[in-house]
Fold:
Amino acid sequence: MSRIPQNNPSQICKNLQCEVSSRSYIAQFVPRRIHRSLSWRRSAVFLVLFIAGLSSPSADPSCHASVRPDLALAVATDSAGPDQSAARSDEQEEHGISRKAAEVVRLFGFPITNSMIVTWAVALALTVWARMVTRNMKSVPSGAQNLWEWMVGGLRSFLEGIIGPQLVDRTFWFFATIFIFILATNWVSLIPGVGTIGWGHRTPHGFEVDQPLLRGGNADVNMTFAMALIFFACWIVWALREVGLRGFLKELFAPKGENTGLMKVLMIVVFFLAGCLEIVSILFRPISLGFRLYGNVFAGENMLDAMSRLIPSLSWLLPVPFYLLEVLVGLVQALVFMLLTAVFTMLICQHEEESAPEAAHG
Structure:
């Protein structure tokens, strides 16, 4: 039987020493830039792994394996194009109803959105109903005529107590129209089918609508902002017609009260600065009016959508109490929009209202 030769420890040390010396000899021919580059890359990789481990929600001493999946997710996200990353971020942000109206069809190059369909339908229905109700007026109203006269008469009496009878005669047509239109649009948006019928895809819980055929008219910021701009234009016309250009500027910049001497000069400066701030406030009124109505209506639709998705088996029952709440919110928002526009009009046109009794007394 032959014996297996055993290496001497001294011989092993000599071999290792020769190998180390040969590696160091080869390393002399490697440029120092490569060594620096390799060391820099090692530091960068270590830093990325360390940051990924800290930013991971499951990074703790007992779970170090979560670093690599997070790093792979970050690499996959960075490797995707900017368009894909933006699309993914938009999908993650929008969990409910889309913030903008969807285009349904394009006629002669003009886009028709789902909110425009509801808006036109409500306007057409109100116009036809008003014409039918007022076609054959009776001295003793009944039915639809009774409802129409009760609504119009109640609104007129309500506004007379706020802005006065003289201003109501000139502006009632706008305030009554805007109230009835906003109220009808808000309530029509609550009809089942608005926002739930359209194009989509099937899910394990049923069919999910991605692009609805119909959308609430006031859930589109373009609609609410357009109504606010129309009021702003009417407000300028009413103000110039009531008090004139001189009275308009006087209402903004002229000092109020009787002052003399240095106090009068001080009041002139103070009221001029206050008038500049008032101009800024006036310019922001259409924005505040439009976004107030849009925000409340859009938030209500998102709440109904969230309640219907909360428990799929009870999607027909959970939104019912919130539907009743949205009926009240639709009425309140229409009333708030009308009252704000009426008060803004009264504030700029009250000069003539106050001076008229004085002129009559004199």
About this structure: The chain has ten helices and four strands. Strands lie at 103-107, 110-113, 198-203, 206-212. The two ends are 143 Å apart (CA to CA). Residues 38 and 253 are 72 Å apart (CA to CA).
